[in-house]
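Good morning C.,

I know you're traveling, so I'll keep this short. The sequence:
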Amino acid sequence: MKIGFAQINPTVGDLKGNYEKILGAYHELSARGAELVLTPELALTGYPPQDLVFKSRFVPLNLEYIERLQGEVGDVPLVVGAIDYNPGAGRPFRNTAFVLQRGQPPRSVYKSLLPTYDVFDEDRYFQPAESVAPLEINGRKIGVTICEDIWTEKYLPRRLYDFDPLASLVQAGAELIVNISASPFCVGKPLRRCEMLSGLARKHGVPIFYCNTVGGNDQLVFDGNSLAFSAQGEPLAQLPAFTEALGIVDSESHSAAECRKSDEAQELFEALSLGLRDYLRKCGFKRVVLGLSGGIDSAVTAAIAVHALGKENVLGVAMPTQFSSQGSIDDALALAHNLSIRCPILSIQEPFEKFRTLLAPEFAGLGEDTTEENIQPRLRCLILMALSNKHASLLLSTGNKSELAVGYCTLYGDMAGGLAILSDVPKTQVYALAHYINRDHEIIPRSSIEKPPSAELKPDQKDQDTLPPYDLLDRILALYVEENLTARDIIAQGFNEATVRWVARKVDLNEYKRKQASPGLKVTSRAFGMGRRMPIAQRFVD
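The tokens, ready to paste straight into the viewer:
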């Protein structure tokens, strides 16, 4: 059977636009000889629709578009992800794969395994399938599954389910498995998916065809990378990453392919570019503005923005004070030149001095401290937000995950913005991104990469005056935040106790900041944001 993949980029809630995208892909794949066409999970509604499903007209309208699709399909069946009602007890809706074909009523396959961990909250909305059975499609017994239905223990955080839909479908006679998916990206996940699907195909002796969505929806990025495997577990095809694509794969094909092994920095760069591009496009923005300090974080953010949006849609602004080195100003201007973007210099020294004068009576007898330091990024935010408003541009926050974790950032200052594209990228990976950006020629000035990081908010300030070295900090943060180990667990691995306890306490104490931070793009296994829900007012100390 020739399986058509419609690896498309739906927009959450755009039922009409998604319908047209699905129909266009279906007609093209049918014309090219596909005998069955797959779309991603919840392709009609976009994933995840979240509480849109509770709006009174959302689910009925999505079903109206299913009826319209049913009237448009021909003899080639279409598997389309959408939402159905659950008329019985339990959650109100079903995460559904509708199988549409001319001359037959729509057939519905419901998702069996509903993820409720990390960024997933499907149990809030959907009722799982009570049973599974193959469908007869064009004379073949086909097992239709939805995303989580094929994920196995080895690739999940722990054993989450007692039921194995894939094994049940094979036992019931399924000759071929299709999976429609909305699997979010994180570093290394495309290769893990490939290994998992290969192993499942080999274990059960059936071909597996996996159609994944692509694009950015709020904090999530979906990488595509749709896959097909023979019954022997050999890869037959892999669609491109981070872009829409249509493809047809024959289940009887003997031509071999390979699972692509991407460079980690390249994966990150492409994921962040797509996430930024789609966030703007789907929210109605065209341009961005950001502060350029001459440091590596703002440089990487600017380079990604230019790649994603074009140089004409990116404005950088240098806002020095007396503490800004000439080298940093030069680096900001050199970066802007290399990227061909504008970078006006708007000094905040005079307003900074006026603020200090204004506050002097209230601060009488008190020495200068972080209060005066924080006035500077807050003044910069004022300027950037004014430019954002005047030019209808989205303000990009440039902070990284390491800083956000320990609160080395200023609330209502450098944390402000419409999107923080590096907020899930540890500082050590920011350096890897910078080297990737400079892989062919120098875009980010070498001095921005080589000089010691500094916020430049007081004389001779360096990040490492108050923070552990970033390579050490990032290793501890990975264990504490992503692997959820306690301070005691991390110390037992040989890390310095004082350093670990300092880092852990800083992470805990700065939850209030992160709750007010810009939304960020998730690219690691556990990001600050929708996948990590910690209380602000809490007193647990390990």
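Safe travels,
E.
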